[in-house]
Amino acid sequence: MPAPDENPTGKTVAGKYRVEQQIGEGGMGKVYKATQLMLDKPVVLKVLRPDLLSDDRTVARFQREAKAASRLNHPNSISILDFGQAEDGAMYIAMEYVHGKDLHHILSREWPLPEARVAKIISQVLSALADAHSAGVIHRDLKPENIMVEQRRGDPDFVKVLDFGIAKIQDDTTEEGPALTKAGFVCGTPEYMSPEQARGAKIDHRSDLYAVGVILYQLVSGVLPFESESAIGFATKHLVEQPLPPTKKRPDAKISPAMERLIMRAMSKVPEERPQTAEAFRAELLAIEKERRAAPARQRATPSAMANSLEQEDTRITHGRPLAPGLMGDQTESFDPDVIQRMGKKPVVVDTDKNIVPEVTAPNPTGAAGSGMALKVVTLALVAVALVLAGTYLSQQWGSSRGGAHAEGPLADEGAPLEIALDKLPEAEIPVERRDAVGSAALETAADAAWAKGQYDAAVTKYQDAFVKNPTAGLALKLGELQFQRDKLKDAQRWWNRHLKENAESKAAPYIRAVLGGN
Questions:
Q1: What's the confidence (pLDDT) of residue 167?
Q2: Is 80 exceeded by the pLDDT of residue 208?
């Protein structure tokens, strides 16, 4: 057999492909752009290194794994068109040519990438992996260079995952040797290797998911989780060193807490602690993006945004429009998601019987009538402030004497305090005879003030205490929103379920369904 041509550019391979130019090189061999002569179509040829051809086991494995990759049929997986052996003995794989840029190119030139874009790209990678894993194929060499991104039918970020042609078929007969020593056929790049892959242990599909975690880390932070001057150094760090959270490594990067948690879990040294399937990983990633899109309706306001928010609220007050449900007791006849994020951020006086804010006419600065109106307004304001301060004082006095969540009736001789476990509170039924609407209102006012100051833990405690005294739908709605802002989704759902139980016709229902995704 003749020796493989070291420079096939301009020559024809297997009578089918004319080699145009070299476009890459890896541990297995070189990569060329070529033209498929029969169809005059651009393709990619990956040619195995000549020194590997003498290893019959490597050649047989190359052929077997190329067959496996050719069976994959997923929109986000590169299509394997052909494989075989050229006249000079060279082993090759022919695959579709992608008109785009690899993710490494995008990362180096376009970082920082919006989290939404990162989620979109990686969700497609995970979709391709899910298809491969279901066919028993593990990629083993995921890295930004093996992820192509192209524009397709108006979609600027359509993904193709490359190099399934060197993937491992997951079966009981494949032998695994040390990952860093197997002669020339090491599948994996040290920067992205899972710990089990680096130590030469038997791997499964979760090794690919670790690599996805590393890629996510790099995309959101712009840097790798570990740094080293050698392959062994990278492998050692993946084996024994815990990565810094991306926000610690790159404090200036904009990374959501949920994304960071997912990345750190995907990079766990223990496979059982990672997302267990590509489908599950993808579902979590998309859930984070869904949460991000829902965030504008509940985001914590910046000082400037707070000022705009309060200015808008003043407009609502002067026009006598209904307030948000959380500021109206258990009424939800008029619901505005923009207002719910401001619950408790500004004290207001509400006509609870009519469920609207009374009209306030601007005082006339001249004349007796104007002076009289001004005096009335000032008097009402002072009374309102006094009531709020009194309520807060009573709330603090009551709170300092309690040891846990309980309800005391309005009369001291009605028996011992009603003890309720906090984890049972959203479903608790409070006897009517033990309810205290006045005490509950004072606690709710104090909770509103705590929320306005950003004291979320204190606000939750006071709202819960108020709920024990008088379990209204409005309190349940507030508790659901506040727990949602604290990223306690299960608690938020329980409180919102209680709200809807108390008020089946709630105008907040569409908002709740949108936030919870229809659950």
A1: 64
A2: yes
